[in-house]
Amino acid sequence: MALLMEKRSEPQTESERADLDAIASLKENTAIELKDKGNEYVKMGKKHFADAIDCYTRAINQQALSDSDTSILFSNRVHGNLLLGNYRRALTDAEDSIKLCSTNVKVLKFLPCYCSQLGFLPLMR
C-alpha cells in the first residue's frame, strides 16, 4: 500500500505505482480546485482577499503542479497580497514565482507596484 511507504522509496509493485499515481492525481486536482476557488474569492472583493490567499497557499502546499503552474499560484498570491497592502509578502512571493518561471509575465507586471510601495522605486504618479 503506497500510503504506508517510506518517503523517497520507490514503488515495488504495480499496485503501489497505481496508488501513487492516484494520489498524485488527487493532489493535482485539489491544487487546481483551490486555485479556481481563490480566483473566485478575488472576484468577490476585498472582504474575501484573505480567503483567496489561503486558497493559493493551500494549492502551493499540495506540491502537485509544474513549476510554471506553481509560479502562477505564487503570482496570484502576489496579487492578493498587493490588494491587501502586504507588500513584503508580495515581494517574497514574486521572487519565488520568478525562481520557478522567469518568464511569468503576470508577476513581472506587478513588480513596479510593490517595489515602489516598499521604497525601492520612487512612486510613479
Description:
The chain is elongated, with a radius of gyration of 18 Å. It is mainly alpha-helical. The chain contains 5 helices and no strands. It has a single domain, classed as Alpha Horseshoe (Serine Threonine Protein Phosphatase 5, Tetratricopeptide repeat). The longest helix is centred in the N-terminal third of the chain and has 31 residues, at 14-44.
Reconstruct the topology from this structure.
Blueprint: H1 14-44, H2 49-61, H3 67-84, H4 87-100, H5 105-117
Helix pairs in contact: 1-2, 2-3, 3-4, 3-5, 4-5
Strand content: under 5%
Output the CATH class name. Mainly Alpha
Number of self-contained structural domains: 1
Q: Fill in the CATH topology.
A: Serine Threonine Protein Phosphatase 5, Tetratricopeptide repeat
What's the total number of strands? Answer: 0
For the record, the CATH architecture stands as Alpha Horseshoe
Average pLDDT works out at 85
Low-confidence stretches: none
Shape: elongated
Structural class: mainly alpha
Largest sheet: none
- How widely separated are the two ends? 60 Å
Order of helices and strands: HHHHH
Instruction: Determine the fraction of residues in helical runs and give it as a percent range.
Output: over 70%
- CATH homologous superfamily label: Tetratricopeptide repeat domain
Give the assembly state of these chains. Answer: single chain
